[in-house]
Fold these 2 entries.
Entry 1:
Amino acid sequence: QALGEQRLSVHYQPQVNLITGRIIGAEALIRWTDPEFGAVSPAQFVPLAEESGYIVTLGAWVMEQAVREAAQWMRDGMPIVVSVNVSALEFRQADFVERLTRLLAVHQLPPTLLELELTETILLENPDQVIEKMAALQRHGVRFSLDDFGTGYSSLAYLRDLPLSQLKIDRSFVQAMVHDAKATAIVRTIVTMANNLGLGVIAEGVETAE
């Protein structure tokens, strides 16, 4: 009902290069503001959408909003890479690759300006099929980021086998760095490993100068 009554919206969280201070990308995030419930947290409704299967409809809507917005920014002379989270259920849809390439063509967005954020749970079923889909989209120019790295199975084989362009360090490590030497060591190790593999790194949850 919230989707049909236009109570959902897509907000964009900037991704900033810490050396230059420039915005280098933006992550699309879904938000729900309800007249009865107020601001409904994604932590509440996204798991329910995944459990019910409605995440496929929700994910497709967010993807279309993000692609349309990114195409408009490009036309306005501000091309920026937009990251969109894709759930395992959505990625497993048989027509996912075809639907996404058609969407990019309709809005005339270069695939290089789209990055899909995947979590490791996406690989638990039919990893070969997942890798095949990723490779097909990568051939078009779409980029991939492994989300919440360090909190799931974190198999190093994924870094070898998947066509990734970036790792996202989970916010729990980033926010613990200020007071936890082990968290700092983990973050430093992930950054070094990513650099050696030629991967970019995004740190989630950078909210203070420290």
Entry 2:
Amino acid sequence: MIRIVCAEIGSDDPRIYHELYRRASAERRLRADRYRRQEDKLRCVTADALLQRALGTDCYQIQKGKNGKPFVKDRPDFHYNLSHSGRYVVIAWGNTEVGIDVEQHDATADLEGIGAHFFTSDELVYIREDASQRTERFYEIWTKKESCLKYTGEGLRRNMRSFSTLTPEYPIRYWYWKPDADHSLCLYAVDQEITFELLDIQQLL
């Protein structure tokens, strides 16, 4: 089974940030301190709160795999991936590798130019064939690309045009959701049962 928990940041109450910061690991606090924008700081410590919730403990050590993908030391049964954008911070975990991505839609982005640079020809046809769905389809493809690369740990080291998200190889597949009209979320993992939970950030306190 793969579990997904998505936390919505619906409050800018500074008390929420300070409490999550207090509970965060030393590494996460250092990372949060490096951000300038308060919303980035909040997303950072929220990610740590979700990881602690998934592990059931605040005592853990993160290490890096061969492609730089993080894993929890001494927990070979626990594979996880984190993502955050806009109002959402999300974690996916299970006993096999997972990759997850959430993206806030950017109304000012040059979707055509970005797509031409990063997407395959069949993906571009899919995006362009319905003008009314162009933005949604763009972010569907983008989150699929990102979740696949996060699954492998390759990140942007791999050319995103080297594979098409429209032809995934079974038993690995994509699950695509829209938590709201302005965000897209995609999981890439081996086909199995999935649970999805949407939380308000205050439920992490």
